[in-house]
Each structure stands twice: as C-alpha cells, then as structure tokens.
Amino acid sequence: MIGTNLVLDTNIIIYYFRGSKFARDLILNNDIAISIITEIELLSFPNNSKKDNSLIKKLLSTFTIIPVTSFVKEKTIEYRLLYKTKIPDSIIIATSNYLGYPLVTADKQLKNIKDIEIMLFDV
C-alpha cells in the first residue's frame, strides 16, 4: 500500500460500510492497523448477517490487527484512569500509542487525548 500508517477506530470502518467516500479513500490509500477490539466489535454486532460478517472479515484481512500486548494493557489502564474513557476506547487509544500511528476516529470525546495524534473525522 501507499500512504500513511493509521489506526482506525471502529466507527470509521462502520462509515466505510455505510458508503462514506472519506472512509473508503482513507482505507484504500493508507496502511491500516486496528486493535483486536475493533475486530471483536465489528464481528459481534447482533444484527450482522453471515454476509455482513463475511464482508467485514474480507476487509479486515487487509489490515494489520494488533493484539493486546503488555504495553497496550498498561497504557489502557493509564488512559482509563486519566481520561475516564471506556475500556474498548482505551484499548484502541493504547494501540495507537503502541504503534506510534495517528488514530482516525469520529468520537469527539477522544480529541483531548494528549500523547497520540488524533485525526477527527467530522460526520
């Protein structure tokens, strides 16, 4: 791939499947990593059909999926305590920190995180 290394929040991938041109261009033109939490969130929506999950898995196979390492675990705890973020968000933020890649998100509550670069997608 060409472009920038990015970590995507789950919501960006949801926008991709809803037809967002921005999300499509972002995914097609950059090297994408996601937290394993994003994979879990996407594949566990109760209303997903088998076809939905098949399409999600196909897209995810083009990404680097980052497990919860010891570093990610420790940073998750720090973010949760410091910013009062939800555990899934904290893990995704910690993954961005672990890789040193910007986090692309539509979650405005994450814009105040200080030690990672946040690229806020305005819906």
| Average pLDDT reading | 96
Strand order of the largest sheet: 3-2-1-4-5
N- to C-terminal distance: 26 Å
Envelope shape: globular
CATH homology group of the domain at 5-66 and 101-120? 5'-nuclease
Description:
- The protein has a domain of 82 residues: 5'-nuclease (Rossmann fold, 3-Layer(aba) Sandwich), CATH 3.40.50.1010.
- The chain is α/β, with parallel strands linked by helices and 123 residues long.
- It has a five-stranded parallel β-sheet.
- Helices cover 50% and strands 15% of the residues.
Write the layout of secondary structure elements.
Elements: E1 5-8, H1 10-17, H2 21-28, E2 31-35, H3 36-43, H4 50-60, E3 64-66, H5 70-83, H6 87-99, E4 103-105, E5 118-120
Parallel strand pairs: 1-2, 1-4, 2-3, 4-5
Helix pairs in contact: 1-2, 5-6
Write a short abstract of this structure.
The protein is of the alpha/beta class and 123 residues long.
Supply database-style keywords:
6 helices; 123 residues; alpha/beta; five-stranded parallel β-sheet; 5 strands; Rossmann fold
